[in-house]
Write a structure and sequence with these properties.
Strand order of the largest sheet: 8-9-2-1-10
CATH topology of the largest domain: Hsp33 domain
CATH superfamily of the largest domain: Hsp33 domain
Number of strands: 12
Largest sheet: 5 strands, antiparallel
Helix content: 25-40%
Number of domains: 2
Bound molecules: zinc ion
Number of helices: 9
Length: 271
């Protein structure tokens, strides 16, 4: 079975525990991971990106989205994540965080928090926030789901010799404690070979595609420029143009002075 760039939804044979599993080794290379400058930032990125890929499993409709914002103790260290119902996953680290060199556990502290927003056409926007007190991102999200949704969700990420895998475990309400413990033990036992092991004690229920594509296009940013004051546009035309950055994928769009002048002209036609 080809499990590359896929999120698998699995169920234990006696249907009491739900699993989501993803091997994100390849897809993480297409993400912002290569832009991480330190080992600490790389480790944190792999963890957060993998968990976001797993969270795609929460999205049942194509128009649903999850946005996660993580603010660490230092104001300049933060993460923006977007996961959509079509399987697009993006994690954007602030520049400071991408070059953070130190102990990851020192990032949390006073004022650190995680906020999660669910967006859908039917239910609108729902945001919940939790203080980042625990040192691990996976523990934080587990706490979040226990507090805000009263559901037990366990996140596990394994990185070994370049292979990045993650697993999200959701015991159903009627699952016996011993069964959950046994499953957790076997996940811990198999560790790096968890992908293969899961297929032996679970059945695949569904498969989802994962991708790092973004819907952003240069013309969308031209629209944003159109809404600026002409005076401001003139200034940036004089300063050799304007660089705009997509807030979801981090892609940079450069508008040259000449392009800005064209935008000013278009704007003047409507004024
Ligand atoms: Zn984008």
């Amino acid at each position: 079975m080809n499990i590359k760039n896929r999120l698998l939804k699995l169920m234990t044979k006696n249907q009491d525990i739900r699993f989501y599993y993803a091997d994100v080794t390849d897809i993480s290379k297409e993400s912002c991971f290569p832009e991480m400058k330190t080992d600490a930032a790389k480790e944190l990125y792999q963890k957060i990106f993998t968990i976001c890929c797993l969270m795609r499993g929460f999205l049942e409709q194509e128009d649903q989205r999850i946005k996660i914002f993580v603010q660490y103790e230092r104001k300049e260290c933060y993460v923006n994540c977007n996961i959509d119902g079509e399987g697009r996953v993006h994690c954007l680290f602030s520049e400071e965080l991408a070059s953070f060199d130190g102990d990851i556990s020192s990032l949390t502290g006073t004022g650190a928090y995680l906020s999660l927003t669910k967006i859908s056409r039917m239910e609108g926007k729902v945001t919940g926030t939790i203080a980042l007190s625990s040192h691990s991102f996976e523990q934080c999200l587990s706490d979040y789901y226990r507090q805000s949704e009263q559901t037990e969700t366990i996140f596990i990420v394994y990185v070994n010799s370049g292979r990045v895998q993650g697993c999200m475990i959701q015991p159903l309400p009627f699952a016996l404690r011993e069964a959950v413990k046994a499953v957790e033990n076997s996940v811990a036992f198999y560790r790096e070979t968890i992908g293969e092991a899961l297929l032996s004690f679970c059945d695949v229920v569904e498969e989802y595609t994962l991708s790092t594509d973004c819907k952003c296009r240069k013309e969308m940013f031209a629209g944003a420029l159109l809404s600026l004051e002409t005076e401001e546009l003139r200034k940036s035309a004089e300063n050799s143009g304007e660089e705009l950055v997509c807030g979801i994928c981090g892609k940079k769009y450069l508008f040259t002075a000449k392009e800005i002048e064209t935008i000013i002209k278009v704007k003047e036609q409507y004024e």
